Amino acid sequence: MEEGRRIPSAGGKSPIVLTAAGRRRGRPRSERAQRAVIDAAGELLLEVGLERFTIDAVAARSGVSKATIYKWWPSKGAVALDGFFHAVDPKTRFPDTGSVREDFTAQLRRLIRILRTTPAGRIIAGLIAEGQRDPTLAAEFRHRWLLPRRQLAAEFLRRGQERGELRTDFDPEVVIDQVYGPIYHRLLSGHLPLRDDLATKLVDNVLPAITAP
Amino acid sequence: MEEGRRIPSAGGKSPIVLTAAGRRRGRPRSERAQRAVIDAAGELLLEVGLERFTIDAVAARSGVSKATIYKWWPSKGAVALDGFFHAVDPKTRFPDTGSVREDFTAQLRRLIRILRTTPAGRIIAGLIAEGQRDPTLAAEFRHRWLLPRRQLAAEFLRRGQERGELRTDFDPEVVIDQVYGPIYHRLLSGHLPLRDDLATKLVDNVLPAITAP
Predict the structure, then answer these.
(1) Does A11 lie in the same domain as A64?
(2) Per-position DSSP letters for A9-71, written without gaps between them
(3) Mutate which of B136, B150, B177, B184 to disrupt the A interface (most A C-beta within 10 Å)?
(4) Hey, are the CB atoms on B132 and A188 less than 8 Å from each other?
(5) Is A81 inside any structural domain?
(6) Which structural domain, as residue segments, surrounds residue B158?
(7) Residues B107 and B52 in one domain
(8) Average pLDDT of A79-106?
(9) What is the pTM of this model?
(10) A45 and A142, same domain (yes or no)
(11) ipTM over 0.90
């Protein structure tokens, strides 16, 4: 993907500043327009779902032209995913009370509730399913949803290590997979419901292995 | 689904005996024919993948007529899944050396290797993806693949409890999700490879929480 055209993956400090920051930074009008597109895309996706999501509707709602949107995002899926991330992100931030157990459980409970009670669950399942046949969409899903979210979790674990609460010799990628993987697995396979009490159990089952002695 | 027409979910003791066992048991010819269908379906699926899998080809390879196959299985997906389960099952049995850590890790390493090195990984990902749009296929996937496999894992954990090696107060469903969920998650989202050393880490991260004091 060409640097300078692409909106960087969400989850960073200033997710709506373009990668070629020198060229774009300090242009509040285009930043505001990008923000409007992202907000419109997030709202629209949660309202109508992925099948009925169109760039025309995003353009109408944001007041930004279709051509401009396509200048900034490579595909419909990319706009949808950036909008989706920014709609869900504020609701699934990690609290920072200083307890890995409390904060991790609270974050997971919020995520689980959003997946269960809003169209977000079906949207994610749909994106992953479509991604099996569409490698571009699969890459967008990873770069605009999954990896930024995993990075937030990795930073959360790192804070726990820096406080001396967690060991430093575990593989954070595997721990993240063991906490979030079951949620995606239940979402996609439907063998068991996404209940609130899952959050506590997911955390309590890995905490003894990663807690500092 | 009608009892008596349906082949029970695989993973039981006699998976090719029909549910209406009284009617079918002791009919070696039809049992042999069912076994031939299951074997042919498993071989075929692993050779050609899900897209090119047809009942015509299963009929040709097994020597059992298409009409008879459809008398025993409700759909193409059901035959494919039963065949798939029986092709993979003997390669992913739990060893029973008396150590949860050793046996769980060995079983996971085999499963991971099969998913990585054979078409099985793409087949499972494809079935889960198709299942998002096809509830019947999703149900077949659960009943003919996922639940029998989860049941084998639950029995394995129960043996560990009976030996006094494992606690008895954990939720086995969540532990099973935390060990297998990450594998399905990596398979479908592709954010990280399915490496052999994942097996050890998956087990070691949950073992402290479930080991008896």
Answers:
(1) yes
(2) PTTSSSTTS-SSHHHHTT-HHHHHHHHHHHHHHHHHHHHHTTTT--HHHHHHHHT--HHHHHH
(3) B177
(4) yes
(5) no
(6) 87-210
(7) no
(8) 94
(9) 0.85
(10) no
(11) no
